[in-house]
Amino acid sequence: MADTITITDDRTGKTVTVPITDGVFPASAIRELDPSLFVYDPAYMQTAACKSSITYLDGDNGVLRYRGYPIEQLAEHSTYLEVAYLLLNGELPDQTQLDQWRHDVTHHTFIHENMRKRFVDGFHYDAHPMGMFVSSLAALGTFYNDAKDIHSKESRDKQIMRLIAKTPTLAAMAYRFSVGLPFVYPQNELSFPANFLNMMWKVSGYEVDPRLERAMDVMIILHADHEQNCGTTAMRIVGSSQADPYSSAAAAASALYGPLHGGANEAVVRMLTEIGSIENVPAFIDEVKSGKGSRLMGFGHRVYKNYDPRATIIKKAAYDVFEVTGKNPLLDIALKLEEAALSDSYFIDRKLYPNVDFYSGLIYQAMGFPVDMFTVLFAIPRTAGWLAHWQELLTDKDQKISRPRQWYAGPDERQYVAIGDR
Ligand code: CMC
Q1: How far is 151 from 19, CA to CA, in rounded Å?
Q2: 108-145: pLDDT as tens digits
Q3: Rounded CA gap, 193 and 79, in Å?
């Protein structure tokens, strides 16, 4: 059978045949048929807007790979910095490359004092840390005159290193500000996750528990990339206008902020707290099914129609964390909810399974993070994914400024009516 598709415009009888490659055919076929004909595809459900070699996702079979490496293997054997290198460069680093990368990132963790003293101090005392993080990302770009030099690989590499190195500092700064604690400067002798935990929690005598350091590293590996999700698409769309990477990353982080995206882990903990006890689970499930209440947060995914492989790893990591911190009392409610949903035809028929956010909030809460920080924790590692896609976009000859078409559904031309006659 030929791997082609033939489309006929029944209005004119014109026919176009184009190849199907890896299940994709070029939309230029539609243009060839009739340049004024468009495809209506809200939310890009059926549209591949780019070719990408970064992350492979098979939602029906619960498969996730970064540059070909299964997420399970990376979560077990790798570190976030190694994974960030892999996402950005396409290959795992050798020892020399990793040492250099670790050195470069570690020595760019400080941020300009004006950022802290003038910018961050200007926020209202109860500002949401994610709002602070989004704005700090954009503000950070104003400190680097070379940020706009996006056509130079050397400059791109420098901005990438700065962004990866400084996002944990911005995140911890947002947190310390929100609780009125003095900022803790980065400590270059610590690992990437330990340095972040130290900046978050350091008061006299604090030492990072190596088990929590590892758990943090696993969590950030799992969140580093997820192909063309809403945030990454925002990064690509804004990046396609040739904006600097700080502004583009701020747009991506804004997209991540929403409760249907990275804000879901925060929503999960709020939902579990509201349910309050396992006796209330059946009534909550009924309410979700009736469509009158909230959705079951942390369940369902646009692409996964099976268990999200990250959720499996996170569920296991939760028990490792609870060994150090004590069990999060919301865990029993989460387990009961999962059990109830996975045996209910409403969720089975719609292929709704736990996603990455269902258990991650429980871990973060047990580690002491306030719920307001959860999306910020997602944004730190996702910065690597955003930047990998940004870099891929800028070197892809097929790409132009993003500019979708619309299906105009407004009024036809009409004449202006003077205000007294309306
Ligand atoms: N609880 C109850 N019903 C749901 C849920 C849910 N969590 N998710 C989807 N449905 C139902 C939905 O009502 C619809 O039912 P019907 O066909 O009867 O109208 C059907 O399932 C299909 O849903 P959809 O909204 O068309 O699916 P989507 O692909 O547009 O949405 C989603 C994907 C993730 C936005 C959605 O599943 C959701 O809102 N989940 C809860 C929020 C959440 O956990 N988000 C985190 C996503 S993973 C992390 C990330 O990528 O950022």
Answers
A1: 33
A2: 999 999 988 888 889 998 899 999 999 999 999 999 99
A3: 9
Catalytic residue among 226, 357, 372, 389: 357
Rounded to 10 degrees, what is the CA torsion of 11, 14, 19, 20?
10
On whether the CB atoms of residues 307 and 354 are closer than 8 A, the answer is yes
Tokens 């989460």 belong to which residue?
A: 334
Given 104, 209, 261, 320, which residue is catalytic?
Answer: 261
Q: What are the tens digits of pLDDT across the range 157-215?
A: 999 999 999 999 999 999 999 889 999 999 999 999 999 999 999 988 899 999 999 99
Does 261 qualify as catalytic in the annotation?
yes
301 in catalytic set:
yes
pTM: 0.93
Domains of the chain: 4-58 (no CATH), 75-398 (1.10.580.10)
Size of the chain, expressed as the number of residues it contains: 422
CA–CA separation, 420 vs 410, rounded Å? Answer: 24
What does DSSP assign to residue 354?
Answer: B
Question: Whose CA is closest to atom 8 on ligand 1?
Answer: 300
CA nearest ligand 1 atom 9, residue: 300
CA nearest to 113, candidates 195, 183, 54, 31: 183
Residue 21 backbone phi and psi in degrees, to 5 = -120, 125
59 alpha carbon – ligand 1 mean position (Å)? 14
3-class SS letters over 100-148: HHHHHHHCCCCCCHHHHHHHHHHCCCCCCHHHHHHHHHHHHHCCCHHHH
Cα(267) to centroid(ligand 1), Å: 13
